[in-house]
Write a structure and sequence with these properties.
CATH architecture of the largest domain: Distorted Sandwich
Largest sheet: 10 strands, antiparallel
Structural class: alpha+beta
Number of helices: 6
CATH topology of the largest domain: Glucose Permease (Domain IIA)
Order of helices and strands: HHHHHEEEEEEEEEEEEH
Oligomer: single chain
CATH superfamily of the largest domain: Glucose Permease (Domain IIA)
Shape: rod-shaped
CATH class of the largest domain: Mainly Beta
Helix content: 40-55%
């Protein structure tokens, strides 16, 4: 068609052949450009549409990658939950967490209503539901670990509170001057129950707290005990240290096992220097012999006191 037009122009206008050839090439290029624009507009779209499609594809890829990460986190969290139920909680006496509590929901369909108008809304809603579920499960797991931590701390505290060492050094102990149980009182000269153990030692011998606790006020009815320290260890335990020459702690003060609390003396009603030591459980006196090692060497005791003092 263009050739016939060019031929007509050549014959009627008498144009230069070279000029006509150039016009022919330009006409072909123009036609090709029109075809490209037509195809691009109808089949490829405008540049703006192309950019939008590209962005949509990128978002779809990001969502797919996010779902992969969510699935990995979900699998990892399930492993942690299984260990929590079968190992951690069981070993400290806690019941497993029911699945209905671990997998509890986070609200109804209204929660995701704003996502319905978006493209790929089903994928987006599914992703957000998975993320919300993971958040809920992580919260439940965190609460479980906090509860385990609190119970373990109470257990450690209770173990530290139990009277568990001899109140004076093995090296400083001369002998046991009076055991727990009934005896002929050296001052009253009658048969009465001795509610503790008497450790004979020279005046000024260090006396150590046998467990963690809080120092309590000495009752006036205990004046026969002389200078005395009473420690409430909690968990039903109490210890008493009587006939001291000097007290180093005051009521309300918190003390640790192995802490120096006073010195041996003979204050109160007594016949000589010694420590009268009592252990009470739920308000009843028990034999202190059950609350310390009897075969401990002087070196072992000294090492123990040193280690305990380092932990303060």
């Amino acid at each position: 068609m263009f050739k016939s037009i060019i031929y007509t122009m050549k014959s009627r206008l008498g144009l230069n052949p070279r000029l006509l050839h150039a016009l022919s090439v330009l006409a072909g290029m123009f036609t090709f450009a029109l075809i490209v624009l037509f195809v691009s507009y109808h089949y490829v779209g405008t540049p703006k549409e192309w950019l939008l499609k590209r962005e949509a594809q990128e978002y779809a890829e990001k969502i797919a990658a996010l779902n992969i990460k969510v699935n990995k986190l979900d699998a990892r969290l399930n492993e942690i939950a299984q260990r929590d139920d079968e190992l951690y909680r069981t070993n400290i006496g806690l019941s497993p967490i029911p699945d209905e509590l671990r997998k509890a929901g986070m609200g109804g369909a209204e929660r995701y209503k704003s996502l319905e108008a978006l493209s790929n809304s089903e994928v987006l809603i599914s992703t957000f539901q998975s993320i919300d579920r993971l958040g809920r499960e992580l919260y439940v797991q965190s609460e479980s670990f906090d509860k385990i931590n609190r119970k373990l701390k109470r257990r450690v505290d209770s173990l530290n509170a139990i009277p568990a060492i001899q109140p004076i050094s093995v090296r400083d102990l001369k002998y046991i001057s009076s055991k727990y149980g009934f005896r002929d009182h050296p001052k009253l000269h009658r048969w009465i129950k001795h509610t503790g153990i008497d450790f004979a030692a020279k005046k000024g011998t260090p006396i150590y707290a046998t467990g963690d606790g809080v120092v309590e006020e000495q009752k006036t009815s205990m004046r026969n005990y002389g200078k005395m320290v009473i420690i409430n260890h909690g968990y039903g335990y109490e210890t008493r240290y009587a006939h001291m020459s000097k007290k180093l702690v005051k009521p309300g003060q918190r003390v640790k096992r192995g802490q120096l609390i006073g010195y041996v003396g003979h204050s109160g009603r007594t016949t000589g220097d010694h420590l009268h030591y009592e252990v009470l459980v739920n308000g009843h006196s028990v034999n202190p012999k059950a609350f310390y090692l009897k075969d401990q060497t002087a070196e072992e005791y000294d090492d123990m006191i040193f280690v305990l003092s380092m932990g303060k």
